[in-house]
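Pasting as-is:
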Amino acid sequence: MSFLSIETSRSSGQPFELYEFTYGSFIYRYNTTASEVVIGGFTYVPMQLSRQNITLTSDVRRSQLQINAPADFEVASLFRASIPATPISVTIKKKHRNDAEVITEWIGRIMTAEWKHSGVTLICESYYTAIQGNANFRYYNYSCPHMLYGSRCKVNRVNYKVVAIVQTIQGNIITSSTFGSYASKYFTGGYLMFRDPATGFMHTRHIVAHSGNTITMSGQIPELAITKEVEVYPGCDHTLNTCKNKFSNLLNFGGFPWIPTKNPFTGSVIFW
């Protein structure tokens, strides 16, 4: 019998779920039974996983799914220290014990993990939700709306790459004498990249502050260690002065710095 016929018949179907979490080249496979299950040559280990009911809604912003797991759940541990290097996708499948057919119920990705007394909850969003966005990409304002090093900015980040050796690490704060070769705040607003040699993952962190030899990242990188090599790229405050004097990119400045502060016809103040 097919999966659908078992679901709609009066027979005693015994459905269970299969969970696949993909993190780069790593795939974690689990099932909601009490023993291992081998399907298509892949082994799904037993795990106490539960989730909310999957519902359809006209508001895609509410199309989230919560998956509950034990506090020591391996996939959730990737969120303990910081944001994982790459998004972790989730595929939920369903199968009956007495039927070979497997159907896919839901596909999405994990946004964050929340630890509670009873375990951990993975907050997920569907891929349909993830592709939704604001259609407005340009605004009439003083500062430049372009993403630094993006296709509209056109600054080549390779020309500004700085390679440094990490000397000390304290959480999300690292030091290197190389950073001190640049004026304070030079890297503020930029980002740091580190490739983990063990996994090949490229970890990227926003640089929230730079002072002397010290850089503060938006989150720590657990895999980063002293003597490791990192790449750092300077930031931009999206002003005309920075675009011109720091990046020599005035022709691609996307802001409107000469917006009048007063209405030229009435003399009244214009608020933007």
